[in-house]
Write a structure and sequence with these properties.
By secondary structure, the chain is of the alpha/beta class. It is 32% helix and 20% strand. The chain is built from 5 helices and 5 strands. A 5-stranded parallel β-sheet has the order 2-1-3-4-5, with helices on both faces. Strand 1, helix 1 and strand 2 form a beta-alpha-beta unit. The longest helix has 9 residues. The protein starts with 7 loop residues before the first strand and ends with a helix. The mean pLDDT is 94.
């Protein structure tokens, strides 16, 4: 990982498509969360200082509201082929299906 980027990213959920690695390859400081995403776990992961919150599990969509509550300036990105619940869509800045854009392309745009 290079330190040229000022992006701090929290990636939550399974990452079979490699978005965390792609972000790290572009210099982002990435913290990964597996399992249930709670406010406490987001705090421990540094959400308060994050520029991006990337969620890969739409079943954890309620965590978007929690992340935004703790850091109103964080950009919430859902990188999943699962449908995003309607209640979470309003707080999501970007939703991308990995089948449409691979992790390298998405990461490049997110840290540009």
């Amino acid at each position: 990982m290079t330190s040229s980027s000022s992006h701090r990213v929290v990636v939550a959920g399974p990452d079979g498509d490699g978005i965390a690695d792609a972000l790290e390859a572009r210099g982002a400081a990435v913290t990964r969360l597996d399992g249930v995403v709670t406010g406490e776990r987001l705090d421990d992961a540094g959400i308060a200082d994050a520029t991006l919150y990337v969620l890969t599990d739409a079943a954890e969509a309620t965590s978007i509201a929690v992340a935004k509550e703790r850091n109103p300036d964080v950009r919430a990105v859902v990188y999943s082929d699962d449908a995003l619940p309607e209640f979470a869509a309003a707080q999501t800045d970007l939703a991308v299906d990995p089948a449409l854009l691979d992790a390298d392309v998405v990461a490049e745009e997110l840290v540009a």
